[in-house]
Structures are given as C-alpha cells and as structure tokens.
Amino acid sequence: MNTVRKNIVIVLAAFGIAGASLGVQAQTGAPAEGRHGHAISKEERQAKRAEFRALSPEQRQAKMAERHAKRAEMHAARQAKLADALKLTPAQQPVWQAFVASMTPPQQGERAGQRLSKEQRAALTAPQRLERRIAMQKQRTARMEARLSALNSLYAALSPEQRKVFDEQQQRRGGRHHRGHGGHGMMQG
Q1: If exposure means fewest CB atoms within 10 Å of the residue's CB, which of 36, 136, 158, 179 is most exposed?
Q2: Taking the complete model, does pTM exceed 0.70, yes or no?
C-alpha cells in the first residue's frame, strides 16, 4: 500500500515538474498578442540599436524625422478620434484647439538650446548639473500647468455627457501618458 502511494506521489510530482517546464517555455517564447504584442526580445532590440548606430548621421536624422512624423500622425489621429467621440459644438472648438495646442510637445528646435555637448556636460560641476536638472524640471512643470489650465477650460465647456466620454477615453489610455522624459501629456504616446 505504501508503495502505491509513493508511486502516485512520484507520478504527480513528475507531472507537476513537466507542467512547470511547459509554462516556463511558453513564457520565454514569442510575446503573446494583445496589449504588448509589439514587444520585441532583448536580442532584437540590441540588433536594432546596432543597426541604428551603423547609420551615418544624416541617415539617423532622417530616420528620427520619420519616427517623429509617424508619432505626430498617430497623435493627430487620436485627437481626431477624441474630437469625434466628444461631438464638439462650434462654440467648444476654440477651447478644444487651445487644449490640443497645450498637448503638443515642444519641437526639436525649442529644445536644441538646452542640449549640451559631451565636453560641456563633462565641464559641469555636480551642483551645476543639479541646478540644470532643477531648471529643466521647472520648465516641464510650467508646461504641465499650462496643460492643466487648458484642460480645465475644456472640461468646463463640456456637457456632462461629453465629460463622461472624455474621462472614459483618457482612462483607457491608462498610464501610457507618462514617457519618462517629461511625459508629453495625456494624448501623447
């Protein structure tokens, strides 16, 4: 009788180990479709980075311009979709345009004066680097406050039904509005 129990325990343990190993293999395979179906493996990411680094400066600039254009196109499509869902009246259009303008991230030219060369960065002392970071954070905060003001104006102009639609649309976007480097607002992503 003890032998039968031991054999059953051994068989169940073997099935458990086999099931666990299948689960691990399934996790290390290709990413599942769905919200993160666009995810790539570490090796693919490294290959893309190496490919990008191999480009000439002009090619890199062209690729980045293409990426920015695609991102702006997707941003505009999301804005249009939200505007359609809100069914804005002609009286609400000016407030909507102000809101959209506030959500537009700063252009490359606007940020160009902030960038330092490697030599300039290396020459900064620790207190200077921290002062610079604080100044940049203050600029980001000022942009976010302007966005909040535009959002409040828009929100005040919306009907209760439109507010509900707006809140649902923005909630669906979840935490994707923060991108690490200053976060480009709720409609960026």
Answers
A1: 36
A2: no
